[in-house]
Amino acid sequence: MPERYTVSNYLIDRLLDVGVKHAFGVPGDYVLDFLDHVVASDLQWVGTCNELNAGYAADGYARLNGAGAAVVTYGVGGLSILNALAGAFAEQVPLIVVSGAPPGRRRETGAMVHHLVAGYYLQLDVCKQMTADAAILTDAGTAPAIIDRVLTAAITQKLPAYLELPLDVALSPCARPGAFAEPTPAVSDPESLEECVAEVVALVDAAEHPLVLAGVDLLRFGLGEDALTLIETTEMPFATMLSSKSVLPELNPQFVGIYQGGWSRDAVRAEVEAADCVLSLGVRRTDLDTGLFSAVLDGPRVISAAGGEVRIRRHYYREVELGDLMRGLAAAVRPRSYLSSHPASGDRFARPFVPEAGVPLTAVRLYEALDHFLDDDMVLLAEPGDAFCAAAEFHIEEAENFIVQGYYCSIGYCTPASLGVALARPRKRPVVLTGDGAFQMTAQEVSTLVRLRVPALIVLINNDGYLVERKLHEDGLYNDIQTWRYAELPAAFGDPGSVVGCRAQTEDELETAFDTAAANCDKLVLIEAVIPGRDCSEGLERLGRAFRAAQPKK
Amino acid sequence: MPERYTVSNYLIDRLLDVGVKHAFGVPGDYVLDFLDHVVASDLQWVGTCNELNAGYAADGYARLNGAGAAVVTYGVGGLSILNALAGAFAEQVPLIVVSGAPPGRRRETGAMVHHLVAGYYLQLDVCKQMTADAAILTDAGTAPAIIDRVLTAAITQKLPAYLELPLDVALSPCARPGAFAEPTPAVSDPESLEECVAEVVALVDAAEHPLVLAGVDLLRFGLGEDALTLIETTEMPFATMLSSKSVLPELNPQFVGIYQGGWSRDAVRAEVEAADCVLSLGVRRTDLDTGLFSAVLDGPRVISAAGGEVRIRRHYYREVELGDLMRGLAAAVRPRSYLSSHPASGDRFARPFVPEAGVPLTAVRLYEALDHFLDDDMVLLAEPGDAFCAAAEFHIEEAENFIVQGYYCSIGYCTPASLGVALARPRKRPVVLTGDGAFQMTAQEVSTLVRLRVPALIVLINNDGYLVERKLHEDGLYNDIQTWRYAELPAAFGDPGSVVGCRAQTEDELETAFDTAAANCDKLVLIEAVIPGRDCSEGLERLGRAFRAAQPKK
């Protein structure tokens, strides 16, 4: 370890400045000097089994922590993590990827060094397309300003960023940083804001049945508190969407449910679409959030605020930030008393799970049991597939207790992401709800959960392959996968005394498994829930019907 | 399944035309229509646990079969496979990636569909940078010509290719193909060839100690037979390199060894560098093949032929193809009798392994035992790290019996690649020599080996983490990994009756394990060889010393 202060030190200090306390990744020779600095610093190193999993872990960490970092080597590492970087871009997560690289003298001659693909700028070019900002740190003189610029872009835009650190620059002496210039949040134009708030207040006050539709930007930009104040002050009913689920507390009596256009529960759809004034806040029109674009999000009754812009009928306000708008509205909109007057809410609380002995488990009963099992000290991560269709209807009270890739939908994300969740929220238990196909993608990361003694609970739905594909399309043998002995797997990854594996085929076996999980809250527990016969949640049935209807005709 | 002939049918028929009989991949909704066509065709579908592993499997398949294919869904699949595509580009392997995609009507409106990252051309743009050719099939009218063009580029240039098949085009009716126009190999200019051959013949004939240095292009372009004729006719001694190892039979008495500049065994280096005429054929100057650019590959004694060009001293011949040159030389160079006169060859054959009971296993003894165990019905895949350093010195007789990523060096490649090797060469047994860190990267693909009843032998060197990093650099805690119970893992992936796991800590346990592997030639066998104390091959020791010496000073 060099005594002098280097570019590596600077980068580490700035990562700490933006709140990153853990770095996930895999070593490789181009990044070992940087890693020497990491392990000598306050930034805790968390090695993972491969780079994609490191990216997923850092993404899960960033969602709760405000930013996350993954460190990889050049080429083989930088290109292996790309799908995680892409997911973070699509999902607006400030994941910072640091890649080692060959030294400048190799880059300048174009030498054929190991891990090189097709030129020394390829990795940067690719990463630029899926980040807020990306750069190679080519010398110690410019590195500090570039590091500050790139990190600031990530945390203000809530998007990933990429920094490439050549071997020689990692060791170059560098000036120590001053205080990190806290990024200034976007500000509203005062006159636009004032006029906009006045118009929206008039529209909401004049409406008989106004409703708030809370979108994913509220979650990503940390605006849940402002939204909560608005709905508590005005007592308007509110709906959320799959990707924004849990941004507002779901036990609140004004909560209508998850709106997904034609995929919604009938009562939710009816109430949202009957509202005569919809305040759409931070909604992104993705196919899954809009029920394949069937959601009614336009027309004169919808006031749409997102990305600094507010649209009312055919006119727009610019430079009106969501947070400012919500605070303005909370202070001026007349309060209502909707507490008992909106009809759509289903069961306000999760139903108790009373097992019937010997009765084979069904999907619906598994989900009822898990919904009942969850509490405020657990963070649920739901995989794309039947898991996120079912979990959409779970009763989640705290914004940070639900993690989903509701847009990018990369299966295999949740198991590694639970590692990041555990380190960002060490007092909470990560609970992964995953299918067998999704689990197999990234299963080795269970070993890192075991190594770090993360007491995750993995609920693995063994439904015999890629169930979601079977529901969206005619079935084919490509949906079949190898049946693992899932409950035995955790013990193969390390100390069998620190893990528990259970298999449940009946309702009482499932209850016993959840009891075991509760009793072993210091251990990793994997419950294999066997759901035969293509059984699934009602949510996936609805989604499957809509998808099949929308496919090109053969 | 539609009755009519579609673009999907066309693409499948052309893949069959270029010799691809298996397609590896993972389903996803954008590619299900294409997969319906695949499972109804003669192209055999091989599902893998994730897309990166599909890419590695198809790469292993392509190396022996001439071309390989992987099929993935959009975004999450296309970006997960990128590191395999990059590896195929760096290593010159015709891996054809087919990705499903949203239909044209979504692309035209820019709709936010699931799995989309940042625009509908991002995946194509990225893939273009690491393929011979890449295209989106936007309509059925142009698709046939584009498919033919892209596949031809892959198989003539021995580089990967990318085809993106939108949902709607996959189902579009399409004309049936005519006969596939066999790609015409590059041809030499007759006059350049004649003059060049004459000059080279004169130089070789005048030399006292000429030597052939056989590079990786001979392997990739299938020129091993021509090279063998040349060395058999002329009786010149020959050396190979790490990436071209096995292109010429290593039991041949003219075989000098593996030349890697300053990393070579001393006797090999001495003989290659003492030659007064080196015929360098198809050599690529990568850092690993050249011993960090220490190999002596320039100067008046070196005749260098590669990429259609021949260099002699300061002049060049263009349009002289390697195959034509070798055939011309074989017919004209005067024969020598080197059978007993060149000094460098080490042991001509693998030494018998005679275990000492109870003696703890060392790296050197493990490698001696494996070298002895291998026969011509086995294909060895060696991971980057101590595995490929040690395996470089193994005695391999057939070109197709050794697979290595000698340039791109992506750890985790070999386990999935062995699946492709098994399907390309069903009569041979794949033998994977891997480290524990490399194995953990892609370990789940053992389950696909189990599912397809591939009787692979996995020799896992448990040396307690990333040994190669410990040797190249000062050690750090980032090199530590979780210790798995490796021998128990295969049974967790399926039917325990079809797998065998053994653990060997002593020489006699290792012999027993190899005996078990031989006796269970119809089963997947995993041998965990425990090598404590940072012990490694002499090859890795040499590599580590050179790397440390070349690093920037702190």
SSE diagram, text form:
Two copies of one chain form a homodimer.
Chain A: H1 7-17, E1 22-25, H2 32-39, E2 44-47, H3 51-65, E3 68-72, H4 82-91, E4 95-101, H5 104-109, H6 122-128, E5 133-136, H7 143-157, E6 161-166, H8 167-170, H9 190-206, E7 210-214, H10 216-220, H11 224-234, E8 238-240, E9 255-258, H12 266-274, E10 277-281, E11 302-306, E12 309-312, E13 315-317, H13 322-332, H14 363-373, E14 378-382, H15 386-391, E15 402-404, H16 414-424, E16 429-435, H17 436-441, H18 446-451, E17 457-462, H19 467-472, H20 489-492, E18 499-504, H21 507-519, E19 524-530, H22 538-550
Parallel strand pairs in A: 1-2, 1-3, 3-4, 4-6, 5-6, 7-8, 7-10, 8-9, 10-11, 14-15, 14-16, 16-17, 17-19, 18-19
Antiparallel strand pairs in A: 11-12, 12-13
Helix pairs in contact in A: 1-7, 3-4, 3-16, 9-13, 11-13, 14-21
What does this structure look like?
- 2 copies of one chain form a homodimer.
- Helices cover 37% and strands 17% of the residues of chain A.
- With 554 residues, the first copy, chain A, is of the alpha/beta class.
- The first copy, chain A, folds into 3 domains: 7-170, Thiamin diphosphate (ThDP)-binding fold, Pyr/PP domains (Rossmann fold), CATH 3.40.50.970; 190-332, Rossmann fold; 363-538, Rossmann fold (3-Layer(aba) Sandwich).
- In chain A, helix 3 runs parallel beside helix 4 (82-91) and helix 3 packs across helix 16.
- The longest helix of chain A is centred in the middle third of the chain and has 17 residues, at 190-206.
- The radius of gyration of chain A is 24 Å and the shape is globular.
- The mean pLDDT of chain A is 94.
- Chains A and B meet through helix 2, helix 4, helix 6, helix 18 and helix 19 of A and helix 2, helix 4, helix 6, helix 18 and helix 19 of B.
